[in-house]
Specification:
Elements: H1 2-13, H2 17-39, H3 42-58, H4 70-96, H5 114-129, H6 133-143, H7 149-156, H8 160-182
Helix pairs in contact: 1-2, 2-3, 2-4, 3-4, 5-8, 6-8, 7-8
């Protein structure tokens, strides 16, 4: 899966507008639910999704396959933009005193290949299940809960350095596991 994604990114970096649509179709169903879990509002999630893919188009030339898969590249961008949006909303609400909406919205049906998305989720869930509990916990809080490393450290009452180490080592282990599963 990553090879085709890397080819699309390489083509986008070369200015091939025809590569963008399949790239979007392939990865929007992966990142939209993540964004929605973090920002919790469909309108905000749609805006963040648009920002993520605009940024991916603009910075496709910065993609380095040696640093990670296309999936990791776009998911990291999506997570970062979603957290930025939540922080922006919090700052705005603190200024005006309005409470944040805490209702968790169900992810809408997105286009794309449902079987492939289910297989991807299965691979990720299986890999997460093989991590040590402390690594899985911090990764789930970061990627599914949308928390920053500082927020995770506060929630778990752990030193920030410990949280950072657990996330880094957990992600390295996930990379190893998913590579093994791909072969």
């Amino acid at each position: 899966m990553s090879s085709a994604g890397a080819d699309l990114i390489r083509n986008m970096a070369a200015g091939d507008r025809d590569a963008f649509s399949p790239f979007y179709d392939r990865y929007a169903p992966l990142v939209y639910p993540l964004i929605l879990r973090i920002v919790r509002e469909r309108a905000d999630a749609a805006d963040v999704l648009q920002e993520v893919f605009w940024e991916a188009w603009q910075s496709a030339s910065t993609y380095d396959p040696g640093r990670g898969t296309p999936e990791a590249w776009i998911v990291t961008r999506a997570r970062t933009r979603a957290i930025d949006r939540v922080r922006s909303i919090r700052r705005r609400n603190e200024r005006f005193g309005a409470p944040l909406e805490e209702a968790l919205a169900a992810p809408p049906g997105m286009g794309g290949d449902a079987a492939q998305r289910a297989a991807d989720r299965s691979v990720i869930r299986s890999a997460l299940d093989r991590l040590a509990d402390v690594q899985r916990e911090v990764i789930e809080l970061a990627y599914y809960g949308g928390l920053t490393q500082t927020e995770i450290a506060e929630r778990l009452q752990q030193p920030l350095g410990t949280v950072k180490t657990r996330i880094r080592s957990g992600l390295e282990r996930l990379r190893e596991i998913t590579r093994q599963q791909a072969t």
